[in-house]
């Protein structure tokens, strides 16, 4: 297959990913030490990231998910589609959104706006990867992320054409 991670350019291996998540956890543990945030995993991409980040967090939290996407299996974003909203009430809650990538930032921005309208006290964003774009993005991560070039990347939860979320690193996809 043309996107086989064994043959692709690796931007970040597991050592770099783990180092980033350790750094994020240190900051998140300090930030939420005295509170009980609602942590929302943005499905499906953030599943792997959240599964590795959550055990590093040493504060109590409520965990839920949202499933909203502009991509599906496509490589370009379209209209935001909600498949699932959180089951937990967000009114007067501190909310931490976890996602695999901040690309254009539209999906995360729209989710954050929905949370604000639903009464969330605050919303912060932590992502595994932050694509470096030459145009302004709709929002920014509140915690450090792995910077990627403005190319299509996959692995560790990020997919390429619906595949390779299970790749154990962050890889650059071959052009289509």
TrEMBL record:
Keywords: Glycosyltransferase, Transferase. CDD domains: PRTases_typeI. The keyword Glycosyltransferase applies. It catalyses: IMP + diphosphate = hypoxanthine + 5-phospho-alpha-D-ribose 1-diphosphate; GMP + diphosphate = guanine + 5-phospho-alpha-D-ribose 1-diphosphate. The keyword Iron-sulfur does not apply. GO terms for biological process: GMP salvage; guanine salvage; hypoxanthine metabolic process; IMP salvage. One of its GO terms (molecular function) is hypoxanthine phosphoribosyltransferase activity. Residues 19-143 form the Phosphoribosyltransferase domain. InterPro entries: HGPRT, PRTase-like, PRTase_dom. Gene3D superfamilies: 3.40.50.2020. GO terms for cellular component: cytosol. NCBIfam families: PRK09162.1. PANTHER family: HYPOXANTHINE PHOSPHORIBOSYLTRANSFERASE (PTHR43340:SF1), HYPOXANTHINE-GUANINE PHOSPHORIBOSYLTRANSFERASE (PTHR43340). This is Hypoxanthine-guanine phosphoribosyltransferase.
